[in-house]
Write a structure and sequence with these properties.
Helices cover 31% and strands 16% of the residues. The radius of gyration is 24 Å and the shape is globular. It is built from 15 helices and 15 strands. A nine-stranded mixed sheet has the order 1-4-5-7-6-8-9-10-11, sandwiched between helices. A two-stranded antiparallel sheet has the order 2-3. It folds into two domains: 323 residues, Rossmann fold (3-Layer(aba) Sandwich); 126 residues, no CATH class. By secondary structure, it is α/β, with parallel strands linked by helices. Strand 8, helix 4 and strand 9 form a beta-alpha-beta unit.
């Protein structure tokens, strides 16, 4: 009798959580009249199987619902609303996934459930996926003009994550007749920050989260950007009118020299000289060894270049010598195109086109009140950092209190490239170390949050790195099967044919002393 009761209970659980029966176009059409609290359905359509694709995968037949909530006119006279699109596969696997945004959002990306190369789009697997503009419409994902409106800051900072999640789950419950069995948030960059927000502010919403390259504390990290722009502009050659040309502060040959010097010093610290700096905690470098003994030429650096580069890599300090943010790690990314594009640019004249120089979010979002015409070259490291602090209440995602997420049993994978030029990976490392200290040590923290550093990888991918891996599949296994990831198996576009483990912090991939350096079997995750 007892056995029969257990079997009946098990069958009931399966019935509750089994994937919903296939829906048809009539179910899609009915969504037009679906009542949503404080929201309006703008458009519903049926997308045929194979009509769209993502990451090389043909997507299944699905309903596309586009909607908005809380439309209003901001203090700047601009119309705002939290817009979103939800794609509902006609054959559903029981999962819901929020696809994080990027930059400062302002656009609604197709809700395919994409993350990065090598990750199968969630929609292709039968997952219901939502995406959002995070509360405003911009000319592009770098348009930070919404920062002039206080409510738009709040919506972008955290409120849209909550509002869209609740509305999406309401639609899913109506469409399929049941709630999702598993709910996920998956994002890179700005979407990585949103994943951190979800874990820290809204632990009730998600079973699992992937936060890649999370922009977690720009009110602090951008102080380093200001120091870098000032230091490199100060040594840049000047044109006939006495105007500095930032892009010429270092030539491509200069950057290649520095990168080669770092590799020469640090490559073999993991036991194998293979073009990857796996033992990154031990890597230290001084570009003074590259200083020219005489006149500057392509084989060496000028004294001014040496001084400026070492100062930037030591991190921003005020006049009292206090370190204001952790210094960037030494990495081979210095020779990569993204490093130049972010820090120096390619402009042939005196008007810089470096991405850090053109970043409007510092002026409009992270400064309170916003200062649209603020001159970054006049940023005062003694007084101006305080102007960035107020934005933290809205935008930062660096909290270490995750009691709600732990109580829910949530699982969170965080990763960052050590060559990331937009997110200082040292700041993400500092946050995780503080998280460990605040949550009972490493073993206790790793029950819920695991962190992965990727040597050589740039912002969310690229670089001389093992940058092709799938944290989403690892998250599914952790949440749904209880298989916690000690490592992520990676391949690479740069090192073709090579496999390598990406190890959970604090371990690194260390060469065992035998076997091919192109085989993951030749490396073990070990303490640095």
């Amino acid at each position: 009798m007892h056995k029969l009761l257990l079997l009946a209970l098990a069958a009931a659980c399966v019935a509750v959580y089994a994937p919903a029966a296939a829906r048809d176009t009539a179910n899609c059409t009915a969504l037009h009249s679906l009542p949503l609290p404080q929201a309006a359905v703008l458009r519903v359509s049926v997308v045929a199987a194979g009509a769209v694709s993502a990451e090389g995968a043909a997507l299944p037949a699905h309903c596309l619902l586009q909607a908005e909530t809380t439309p209003r006119t901001g203090v700047d006279g601009v119309r705002y609303s939290i817009g979103f699109e939800l794609r509902l596969p006609l054959v559903w696997n029981g999962r819901f996934q929020f696809q994080g945004g990027g930059g400062v959002d302002g656009v609604i990306r197709p809700a395919y459930g994409t993350l990065r190369r090598g990750v199968t789009p969630a929609l292709a697997q039968g997952t219901a996926v939502v995406s959002s503009n995070m509360g405003h419409t911009g000319a592009d994902p770098r348009d930070a003009s919404f920062g002039l409106d206080p409510q738009a800051r709040i919506d972008w900072g955290y409120n849209a994550v909550d509002q869209v999640t609740q509305l999406a789950k309401t639609v899913i419950g109506s469409f399929y007749g049941q709630a999702p069995r598993y709910s996920y948030y998956v994002g890179n960059s700005g979407g990585g920050r949103q994943g951190m927000v979800a874990a820290q502010r809204y632990p009730q919403h998600f079973d699992g989260i992937v936060s890649g390259a999370p922009i977690l504390e720009q009110h602090l990290a951008q102080v380093g950007s200001m120091q870098l722009l000032q230091a490199f502009t100060a040594i840049a050659p000047q044109n006939a009118a006495g105007q500095p040309m930032l892009a010429q502060a270092y030539s491509d040959a200069d950057l290649a020299l520095i990168s080669a010097g770092v590799l020469r010093r640090c490559d073999a610290l993991d036991g194998a000289a293979d073009g990857l700096i796996e033992n990154y905690p031990a890597c230290r470098y001084d570009v003074a060894e590259l200083q020219c003994p005489g006149a500057k030429d392509a084989s060496c650096l000028s004294p001014a270049q040496v001084t400026a580069f070492n100062a930037v890599m030591a991190g921003p300090r005020n006049s009292a010598g206090t370190l204001l943010y952790p210094p960037q790690p030494w990495d081979t990314s210095i020779a990569e195109p993204d490093w130049r594009a972010d820090h120096l640019g390619t402009a042939s004249g005196p008007v810089p086109n470096a991405r850090k120089f053109s970043n409007q979010s510092i002026r409009l979002v992270f400064m309170t009140p916003p200062v649209p015409d603020f001159d970054y070259l006049k940023f005062n490291l003694d007084t101006d950092p305080a102007r960035m602090l107020a934005s933290a209440a809205v935008t930062a995602s660096n909290r270490t209190d995750i009691a709600g997420f732990k109580a829910r049993g949530g699982k969170h994978i965080v990763f960052v490239g050590l060559g990331d030029t937009l997110v200082n990976p040292a700041g993400v490392n500092r946050w995780y170390q503080q998280l460990v200290a605040a949550n009972g040590g490493l073993a206790a923290t790793q029950q819920h949050v695991r962190f992965f550093n990727v040597p050589g990888m740039g912002h969310s991918g690229g670089g001389a790195a093992m940058d092709l891996f799938d944290p989403v599949a690892a998250l599914y296994d952790w949440v749904e099967k209880g298989q916690a990831p000690a490592q992520l198996l990676a391949t690479s576009a740069r090192f073709k044919g090579r496999t390598r483990p990406i190890c959970a912090w604090p371990q690194i991939a260390r060469y065992t002393g035998s076997g091919s350096v192109d085989s993951a079997e030749s490396f073990r995750c070990m303490p640095p």
